[in-house]
Amino acid sequence: MSDFQEHAPDESLNALTRRQFLTYVLGGTGGFMATVVASPLIVSTFDPLRRLGANAFANTHHKVTDFSRQLPTLIEYTVHRDDGWNSADVAARTWVILLPDGTPLAMSPICTHLGCQVNGTLGPDGKPAPSQDGPWWFHCPCHGSKYTKYGINSPDSPAPRPLDVHKVRVDDAGYLWLGPLQQRNRSGQVI
Amino acid sequence: MLKKAYDWIDERLNVTPLWRDVADHEVPAHVNPAIKMSAFVYCFGGLTFLVITTQILSGMFLAMYYTPDITNAWYSVKYITDEVLLGNVVRGMHFWGASLVIIMMFLHMLRVFFTGAYKAPRELNWVVGVLLFFVVLGFGFTGYLLPWDQKAYWATAVGSQLAGTVPWIGPYLQTLLLGSHTVGALTLTRFFAIHVFFLPAALLVLLALHFIMIRAQHIAGPL
What we know:
By secondary structure, chain A is of the alpha+beta class.
């Protein structure tokens, strides 16, 4: 009879066998080492999630009082964009109209259907003109989506929702600043 | 749960013999540090492989942010170091690991030399080991250029001048190495391609040969 059998583990303790114990110790140590190596690598790939909040506002250099309550005006401005190690001022365009209470509504010209640029209704002089198409003032050249001058899509448009609007801010000198885009529901409420 | 999944696969594909063949083999007494502490010198080969594994992993993750272009390479490295979450740790692993591979490989080579493990019938494995040494030095030489800082630029300038001193073919060799008449945009793309595609392929093939041969011939006996 061998030594091992004489000193067999006490069944009542439900003890680990020597082999199991070594397996757990080796597995645990190996797992720990693998985790130490792998975790900074994996964490680094999640870095882009920290940069979601493009919350910066851009100055349009247009005064709120320059805009009309009757028709939208197309303005061009520059947005500072940090893209990895590249940093650039990118040209951007947006349509601005004043709501009846005087607050500015800044609408992105990107059609909510498939991303084309919508056209406003312009007169022969290239200036905004009243619509020839009932309430529909914006028309998308791609698939005919139609929007009112407040950017609300027509029910028969392929566009699923109104034009997106910027968060707006007016500084002390009366200049309009544009922030990130927000989606709206069919009644024009920001969602 | 894991065991059930494993059993399910094993029943169908009989995978157990595959990994048992790799994992279950006796460690001879003379290479077991648990028996005689001085046997730790036999660990350097395995440690070289371990560090190479972390180099491959950290390199894969660095490539997610690095760009091999002369106007952007340095900025992308700076971005990794200063901006990316734990990016300095990932870069640090690759940076320090590079030196560690060479140190471990050299210690491994010393052990093989002084225990006479290169002798017949294992000469071929020594030859493959020397080829691996050159591949790893190639990794070091090409990787050194990639951050595209002053140190990288001038090290490659000097290294390519050395190639240029080879009799007769020197100037041709230098141009081929740099991909151009000077250290520049083509050198950076060339070194990047060699560093992340050509050398890893060579490394994996040679490592496989190295390991297959050691399993076939077994580890050399005690002194």
